[in-house]
Amino acid sequence: MSRLTEMRDERGGVHPLAETKVKDFLEPYVKGFIENSPFVVAASSNAQGDCDASPKGGKPGFVKILDDRTLMMPDIGGNNLFQSFENYESNSKIGLIFMIPGMDTTVRVNGRVTVLEKEQFIERVEEPELYWSDKNAEFVQATLIEIDEAYFHCPRSFKFAGLWNTETIKANSTRNIASLKS
Question: What is the pTM assigned to this prediction?
Answer without folding.
Answer: 0.91
